[in-house]
Amino acid sequence: MKKSFFRFGIFLLIVFAFITGCKENMDSVKNQSTSITNINAKKSINQTTANQAKELVIKRDDVTGVRGVNTNKELLIAIMVPQMDRFQLKAIEKSVKEELTKEYPDYKVQVSTDQKMFLELDILERKLEKGKTGEKELKKELGNIKSLMKEEA
Question: What pLDDT does 25 receive?
């Protein structure tokens, strides 16, 4: 009798610990801060379109971070998705691309959910912010990032 009571108590303790641990994880996912960086380039490279696109995309519930850069004809956006939505990466990517294509029909829009693209665009944004990248270098960097995007697909 005592053994079965003891086993039942241990079982309840394990179930309680498991449920409590999962709940804390869900709360931390909900409380993640969204991440966006507005580029304020002082040179001739105008990043207004990328900034507006990032503001539009970050409003979505399934996006926690956005990085993006634009040229005169292209708009590259990388998004971070919460861990709980990682199974729908392609659907989210497609949805964001359609939304941005409607909003910016004059631009060739490319969207990626790959974390490497997010980091590469983050580095490029920082260079633009500091004024260390000219238009020629920007196009070269974007070419490298686009080739990485093609490898990903």
Answer: 46
